[in-house]
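Task: encode each sequence below as structure tokens.

Item 1
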Amino acid sequence: MSKENFETKLPILEAVPSDEIRIPDLPVDVYLQEAENLGVIAEEDKNALVASGLDWKVYGEDLPVRAGALRHAQSLWVKNRYTQEEAQKEWNERSPGAYEERDDLMATFRFAFRNRPDLLGRVREVADGSGHHDMIQDLSDLAALGTAGAAELNAIHFDAGRLTQAAELANEMATLLARANGERADDSEAKLIRDRAYTHLKAAVDEVRVTGRYVFRKDKDRVKAYGSQYKR
């Protein structure tokens, strides 16, 4: 049901004004459990709450739907964050090998093209620059340059298959870097919609709680049901 709740609520979540978005100040799983518990308690006290002005359809009846939407939004954010973290981990594991291959190809090309000033000059051009994006572009450029200097590379018994591998490696590393350097988890669209879903649920939880605390203000035991056990 959480997915269905999320899909039902998505237009409303997307319409939450940016300046009204709230960030959870306690673990989301804890907040969700408290919200769901509150829904059960409010159902028992429905008549008393409605008698004191609570809009049951907007807040009481809708509270479980809002909770389901937040639960699914939280799952989507966690999945998004995990994917990025996994991509970063894979990049950290594979990038040293990609740099090593780039450097070895350059050393090989400098040797093979030592009597070809034109090709040697292109190797120097490729060598300019630094950083991950530059390394990836270097691999792609070296693959193309190796094809142009095939005769010289054959003369030193160079494995031409490495050129194809370098081009493939460039593509793979580019994709991996894009995934790893995508939106930061804290700024991602998934995080934003999660916060919007929390804000939407919080509006209902707060309204039910404040009404319940008023209704049962003289009942010390019952009034506790309308507070946060986690914060207590």
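Item 2
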Amino acid sequence: MAMKKILIVDDMLVSLMMTENMLCGHYTTFSASSGQEAIEIYRREHPDMVLSDLRMPGMSGYELQQALQKEMQKNIPFMFMTADPDEETESKGFENGAMDFIRKPFRPDVLLRRVGNILQTVDQIEGLKKHASTDPLTGLLNKVSAEVELQRVCAQGQGALLMVDLDSFKLVNDIYGHAMGDKVLMSFADILRVSVRPDDVVGRLGGDEFIAFCSGMNDEPGIMNKAASINKMLDKSARELMGDDMAIPIGASIGCVFVQPGGEEFPELVEKADKALYAAKQEGKHGCHIFKEDNTDDEDSAATLTNVGKILGERHPANGAMRLPFEEFRTVYRFLRRTMGIFGKPISILRFSLPNGTDEKTMEAFFSLLCSTLRTADVATKNGGHCLVLLVNTSFPNLAHAADRLRKKWTEMEIEEGMEADFEYEWTVMEP
């Protein structure tokens, strides 16, 4: 662990050297013989605390403290030294925000103990601030702290404000459970950290929504490359967590607005970035849309003829059967019933059943195996303790062969995972 840094300020050379000698074995010390020199050292080194003589020519210890805190826009831990026996001087020092006061001459053990107490208090305060300002799951800034920090940086200079939303994240919780969902969120937070510079701002707004500000970034290709890199890393991380056969089309949609030199009002920037995020979702997800002032407010503007295919189509079709919620499965079923007389293809519906009382984890494992065994033209859903499947243009021999493959794979999985849940199935050909 790096040693704490202390700036010692005293216009008396002998006193300065003695104080530095007392502390140098325990801390990294910097010495200044005037207030102005101390300011220059502070700008360069950013020490953890300042130990300053109170009465100095040109700039007193009080004036040094006020000047530094005004410039740095924060409270700086100060401890004053003085040979003045006046108790009123000590009282004034505390009124000005000093954390401690020590009278010369002082013993080394007393100085070390009191400096240590100050640094320990500062660490405790910083720890409480960090706890209050960070999201406990991801370690990123929480919503309130992120908005405060972003208001500051967006008002100061140019850059790119990014609104980020995870695509299909709800499926992670629904299929793999909330513990896996938390792992994905933590991994994605790490991806965002490595995708920006250390002095950029990244926060979690809640759920699967994040926000970031990339200072000084104002080129579209750079943002697009960053968005592509984030999605590539997210896909890799998701497969490491959930397995290579993971069929969830998880990704990140990003809305970007460029902040102009001189800064802009944060609420207006958020509104623009949010509109860009909506457009990214409409354009097919897993990508980035950059806000431009001539964007229309019409929410249907993204749904033009040229990108309808992107909006309606699957961006990353998974292998195996299409997994659908029950209501969407029912819509497909009704559509096939309407059209089966036109295309003349046999359509079968199957119901797979596991024993009553089968736990959700086993049911999900079976459903995932079932989907991976079927064709991409098939459709599957879960309904209670059953799995339903629609098969197009499938004869009985092919259906029986598919069921045999499934039973063989399921038996192997039962042995490997220690599960005991044999399944039954029934099927029928749909009638018009």
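Check on item 2: The CA atoms of residues 120 and 161 lie 36 Å apart. The two ends are 75 Å apart (CA to CA).
End of task.
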